[in-house]
Amino acid sequence: MLHDARLVTGMDLKQYEQTKFAMAEILRAAQAVDTKDTGLQSSSRDLLARLADDRFNLMVVGRFNRGKSTLVNALLGAAHLPTGILPRTSVITTVRYGSRTQVVLNFAGSRLRQPVPLSRLPEYVTQQSNPGNVKGVECAEIELPAELLRRGLFFVDSPGLGSAIAANTQTTERFFPEADAFVLITSYESPLSEEEVRALRRIREAGKALFIAVNKQDTAGMEERSQVLEYVQIRLSEFSFPQEPKIFSISAREGLEGKLIHNADLEARSGIPQFEEELLRFLTEERAEAFVQNMRRRTEDFLALRRNLETKAEKRAAFESLLERMGEIQAECGQGAAEAQLQTATAPRLQLEFEQRSGCTICGEVLDAVFRFLSKHQYDLTIDREVQREHAARGGFCSLHTWQYENLSSPYGVCAAYPVLAHRIAADLLQAANGMARLDGDGEEVDGLLASPEICRVCQVRIDAEREAVKHAAAKVIQATGSAAGRLPACCLPHLAMTLRTLDRAQPAGLLLQAHSEFLERLAEDAQRYALRHDALRRHLTSEEERRAAQLLLLMLTGHRSLCAPWQVEWIAG
User: What are the Cα distances from residue 472, in Å, to 27, 476, 503?
Assistant: First the structure.
């Protein structure tokens, strides 16, 4: 799929994101130079907003029945957009990043945004289900958890040009000013219709980048293909584009089918991989670099102006230091681009499988085991005198698990279960008091009254559950590495270390480490993106992953808070 491709030249998307985040850090530092300076705060926030709003509209245009929706589906590797021979309604359909697969409908003359399942999209964008757009849908936003879309790329699938519905062409042309680049899709059946030629004129006037896709090559022989491509090239030369558009011969249908059935030969024959590669090159080498260079100039001009306006030496020095850091960013970009040229494509990586509450699958199993034990034991403690006496003899639970017990129990349960322990400790304290000749005790008499982790029954349950969960995780890793569709268990760092010690094979351990490395990189980017949008007052743009990044980041680094004891459980288990 398009979002799985890896470039070997130019600025890659990760480097692009990190450059943006580095500039955001510099702007935050600039704000901190004088928090009471409203001009400084306003100007820096405007620059942060430009970084946070980064969005790229790639508009797909062409006559109806050219295969625009099929092409977008082929690029994304799944049949997300409805296709068919009948023209669609006059509704712009965008494909953007979202934490879950859904459609968000925007209605004309209303701020109402209605989420619906993707399966219901045809009800709102096809002429058959929404004739003449009687439902008043202005735009349908498809949200997909696709990696490339996560970094600001929007596919815009427009209604067909030249259909019997005049509003379709009008809607498409009205969106032209919002587009950052265009893909004009024509076909071998009737290349460059009158409507498509008119669209080319509009694109030429806009001065935006253009890609030409001649679709349905599977319906034409080699000689016909050559003739059609030559004809398209001649017609394009009439427009004198500043940068000559590249022409691609494709079969969107074969490209989509090849990806769906994992047929590499069919996919390669479709021409879609070459088209994807050029789109990615443009997005990273040209579009991304242009955006970064523009933001770098704006930020440097802002910092230089503030430095020159300052009369206090320490503030001038602060802005001078930030300008130096901007120079370091440029040097790092050059170094990153050189390193990117040495990269090669890698095989598909196995994904991590997460536990909903804790992230870490081992933490999840341990939490379940502790919950089951405490749920039953707190009831027994309430009604069974012998259980209460045994509990008192042990000194109850350790401090951590005493409060976990309290969360599950009730005031009545505590009052029924804990007096036996309290009476026992009271007697021990009195005995210690009677045996103390002077007030110089060192506290040893009290230290052992409450259960230590070595004695606490819940600690033992946790240790046993953890051992089993680590074994299960290691078995899953070995099983997953033998299957292309397998999923690796997600582990917090403490449990990752335990799982690696259990594995006795280098390859599964390496794949597990690689998967966690890639996920932490992604999680760090989500956190950085959330912080940037927060600073820029653009929190409404944050995705679900970005909003959860703070919690999940800590969960993956330290484990679930309910399992973070102030002692080394691993040492106890050993």
Answer: 47, 6, 11
CB 51 within 8 A of CB 19: no
pLDDT over 90 (residue 166): no
* DSSP at 276: H
Q: In DSSP terms, which residues pair with 186 in a beta bridge?
A: 214
DSSP code of residue 287: I
d(CA 562, CA 564): 6
Mean pLDDT for the stretch of residues 252-276: 93
Once rounded to an integer, what is the mean pLDDT over residues 545-573?
80
At 92, is the secondary structure helix, strand, or coil? strand
Give residue 345's pLDDT.
35
Burial class (CB in 10 A: 0-12, 13-18, 19+), 49: middle
Q: Considering only 28-42, 188-202, 277-291, 469-483, which range has the smallest mean pLDDT?
A: 277-291
Judged by phi (left if over 0) then psi (alpha if -120 to 50, else beta), residue 360 lies in beta
DSSP, collapsed to helix, strand or coil, labels residue 59 as strand
Report helix, strand or coil for 189: coil
pLDDT tens track for 81-93: 777 644 455 677 8
User: DSSP of 12-51, one letter per residue?
Assistant: -HHHHHHHHHHHHHHHHHHHHH-TT-HHHHHHHHHHHHHH
Greater model confidence, 93 or 412:
412
230's CB contacts (< 8 A; 6+ apart) are none
Q: Which two tokens stand for residue 120?
A: 């219901």
Residue pair 96/142 in contact by the 8 Å Cβ criterion: yes
Which distant-in-sequence residues (6+ apart) come within 8 Å of 159 by Cβ? 64, 87, 88, 89, 90, 91, 92, 165, 167, 168, 169, 171, 172
Give yes or no for residue 341 having a pLDDT over 90. no
The residues facing 211 across adjacent strands are 183, 246
DSSP state of 341: T
**Residue among 470, 460, 333 at smallest CA distance from 397:** 460
Cα-flanking dihedrals φ and ψ of residue 555, to 5°?
A: -60, -45
How many Å is the Cα radius of gyration of the chain? 31
pTM of the model: 0.72
Q: Which domains does the chain possess?
A: 2-52+288-340 (no CATH), 59-270 (3.40.50.300), 352-432+446-574 (no CATH)
Whether the predicted pLDDT of 342 surpasses 60:
no
